[in-house]
# Entry
Amino acid sequence: MTQLKKTLFTPSATALVTAGAVLSAVMMVATPAFAAGSAKAEKSDIQAAYEKERADCLAGRTGQNKQTCLKEAGAARQEALRGNLKTASTQELANNAMLRCQRVREEDREDCRMMVQGQGTRDGSVESGGILTRIDRMVQENPTAAGAPASAPTPPAAPRRDVPPPRQPKDGAPAR
# Structure
């Protein structure tokens, strides 16, 4: 029995997991800074968190362009002042990540779950354009899927009888 090494590089799965990882990272980093542990955080805490986020935006430490970062920091500050920012629990974040795998093709779903749980090899960064997660698994070779015939080969077809044979020259003369 032969085994082959299968590497998963499904763009849809990779894009989904990367987008989910980025969203989760943003929620885990930004939300606690503004939520401050209660439904209505103190205005001074909200303002301090905003100032820190703004300084990070201006210094280029966020991985976003400056204009977008400042806009997001301002929007988060407004929502925190209204009491609308909620910190997601670790369990909620894990459940959301697993739910994203439901949109992946059935044959790639287990690999998606493995990536969500932190398995695999990661390469790249958000700043460089994305994080590629690679899952390597050994799978059994399927001879019919690998191009081998599923049954015995069909014998060549017999010559057609409705086509006359080619003319033969008479008396050794060359054919025209």
In short: Confidence is low (pLDDT under 50) at residues 33-41. The helical segments are 11-35, 43-59, 66-82, 90-100, 109-116.
